[in-house]
Every structure is written in structure tokens, then in C-alpha cells.
Hints:
Blueprint lengths: L8 E3 L7 E3 L3 E4 L4 E5 L11 E8 L11 E2 L4 E3 L1 H7 L9 E5 L3 E7 L3 E3 L3 E6 L5 H10 L1 H6 L11 H5 L2 E4 L2 H46 L7 E3 L7 E3 L3 E4 L4 E5 L15 E4 L16 E2 L17 E4 L4 E2 L2 E2 L1 E3 L8 E2 L3 E6 L5 H9 L1 H7 L13 H5 L2 E4 L2 H44 L6 H8 L1
Parallel strand pairs: 5-10, 6-9, 17-23
Antiparallel strand pairs: 1-2, 3-12, 4-11, 5-7, 8-9, 8-11, 13-14, 15-25, 16-24, 17-18, 19-22, 19-24, 20-21
Amino acid sequence: xxxxxxxxxxxxxxxxxxxxxxxxxxxxxxxxxxxxxxxxxxxxxxxxxxxxxxxxxxxxxxxxxxxxxxxxxxxxxxxxxxxxxxxxxxxxxxxxxxxxxxxxxxxxxxxxxxxxxxxxxxxxxxxxxxxxxxxxxxxxxxxxxxxxxxxxxxxxxxxxxxxxxxxxxxxxxxxxxxxxxxxxxxxxxxxxxxxxxxxxxxxxxxxxxxxxxxxxxxxxxxxxxxxxxxxxxxxxxxxxxxxxxxxxxxxxxxxxxxxxxxxxxxxxxxxxxxxxxxxxxxxxxxxxxxxxxxxxxxxxxxxxxxxxxxxxxxxxxxxxxxxxxxxxxxxxxxxxxxxxxxxxxxxxxxxxxxxxxxxxxxxxxxxxxxxxxxxxxxxxxxxxxxxxxxxxxxxxxxxxxxxxxxxxxxxxxxxxxxxxxxxxxxxxxxxxxxxxxxxxxxxxxxxxx
Length: 449
């Protein structure tokens, strides 16, 4: 849908905004809002915390889109608020994170306060908070430019107070905010639809993998009881064995960190941070200088090896497991990464599919150790029951799954690209409306009629 422009424009004097409609003003933020700083009660004082006051930090704010805030991850008590003299700001105030990161925003849906990583903007009379919520969303990159600091960037109160804003007459502010509420709501619904599709595709992909590696590809194959409740029936001729029968599980070596090399001198060390879901990440690498007869040959990775992150093995996107390819070599294995080296001739990709099943983590969950950093042991990895058909059937299943997963990934990529375009559309629409590049007043009149 295309929208008309305003009848006449003038120069705003602000480079990133350009021209604005005649009748609009440009004012510094301090002329429109009162700025309130945040604070944090002492962390060791239990009666300062878990009270009835919403206490916002940058982590509570959304950097993706403007939204109304009514809850926070942590709350403080009245006593806690009094102890640090934090300002309680009224519903309708705009909250902006001014460090770590700069520019996440939200609109207070209740009276609340913030920590020192945020500033609260309390609007004067004749100001539509919703309009300026959208305005600040479009101005995030400009606010970030104003950040100063060495350890982390921070937007000072002075720079924020002097930040120049478009200021339309109040009826236009309200009309623009209503228009954006409506249009962004439509876009958000389309985004949510694509996100649901991605979730369904991911679920279907996992189901296809699970069925293929535990039931095979022949729907008419005679079946037998596996003897393991969560596996159920498996094709006749398949074995169900503990992984330790077909792979050797090796835990990495405890290379002393004070002898790590940083600049490519020596052999890369595969650390837990390098093991992702289905792939390795080599953007953060340390190295080790090999010596003759150093006894490290057992920790030298080979093409076809499978590695598992043993600390925090399961993250939101899946198990931290990957296969070693020729391009990843040479490489040595560091502690807290598990190596699965095949003992007998089998398809390593088939084995990796077995371990990628959610059943692996369900199997280990009762015995997983560690509270702050859950981890698994080589013996736990080796005790996992796996379904084992002949090598010929393994190869057929791997070929089938490679094709099926490619199709799923193509569909997921299409949906992901659609979300990106929708977000770009939303951002462009907000920017155009709050800077007066389009005139949306008639849209509200048409609806009212």
C-alpha cells in the first residue's frame, strides 16, 4: 500500500531526518520529557528485593520492536527503592536502555523504576507517549552513535536530553501512533505466522530423523520389540546396542590455558566454545605448540570423528554435536569436549543422527551433573542405546535424510527470509510515519467514517 505525502515540507536541520512537514517542530528531548535516572539496591540485602515494584533493566527491554512493559525479571521492595532513592515513574513513561546495549526501548504499562542502565522519559502534557515510542525505535542507530566509553558504550543523560526530536501537533502524534499500532499489528501477525511455520517445520524435520533412524525407511518391514520403552519397536535384523560397543568415547586433554597461543602458532585446540549444533565455530581459536613425542596423538582429531560439548551439552537450538571434516584439521581435543571415534565400520553421520535425537538428553537428564554448568561424562555418552542396522541400510538412511533435511532447510530459509523482509517493512513504515515522509491522517479518518 502506498501513502500520500504532506502538502508542504521544510528542512528539519537534522541530517538523518531530512525534511519534515510544515507545521511540525524540532525540539530537544528535554523540552518534551523529564529524564529520570535508575538505581540498584544493595544486592546482599534480602528485604530490598522480590517486592511489589517493577524494576526494569536493559534485559527486560526488547530491541526488536517497541512494546509495552508491565513485568520485569526482578522486582524490588518499597524499602529497596527508598534505599537507593530510585525514581518511580508513572505509567506511560518511555524507558530507554542507555548502555549494554544502547537503544532498547519500551513503554511503561504500569508505574515502575529502572536500574542505572536505563533512563526513564516522563512525558509532559500534550505528548503522545506512543508516538515517541515509535520515534525512538526509528532513532536507535542515531542514539547509539552518541555512546561514549571504553569498557562499554554509554549514552549520557546530557546527550540524551539534547537529542533532537520531531514534534508534530498532538492530534497528528495520536493519529500516527494509532496508524502504527494497527499496521504494525498486522505485520507482527504475519511474522508470528512465519515463526509458527518455522517451529512446525523444525518439529517435522526432527520427527523424520527420529523415525528414519529408529524405524527405518521400509514401512512394511517386520518389526520386533527393542526392549527399550522409549525406542519401542525396531525392524527385525537391527540391533539395539550401547554406544560404547561401536564407538570409543574420549575426553579431551587438560591443556594448561597459560600456555595457549593466540596467533596461529601451532595446532588449533577444539574447545567447548567451538562446538555448536551440527557445526563447528572457528571464530574464537587458541593454539598449542606440538613437541616431538609429546603423547598427544590420541587427542589429534581425524576426519569423520564426532565431537560433543560436554558442558552445557544441550542449548535451545539442540545438542552441541558436530562432525569433523578435512577442513577442520589439524586439530587437538581440549577437555570438556567428548570425542566419539568409531570402533567398527559404520556411517558416522548415522551415529550423529542417533545422538541428535531429543531422546539422548532425556536419557541423560536424570544423571546429568552440575548445577550452574550441567555436564555429562564419557561413560554416560557411551551408555546411550542406539539402533544399529546394517551398514547398507545406514547409508540409505543417511542419503535419504540428507535430501529430506535439505528440503526442510530450504522451507525454513524461505520463512526466515520472509520474516526479515517483514521486519524491514515494519521498520521502514515506522520511520516514514514518525518523520512525516508519509501522511497517514486520512487513514484514521477513513476508519472513523
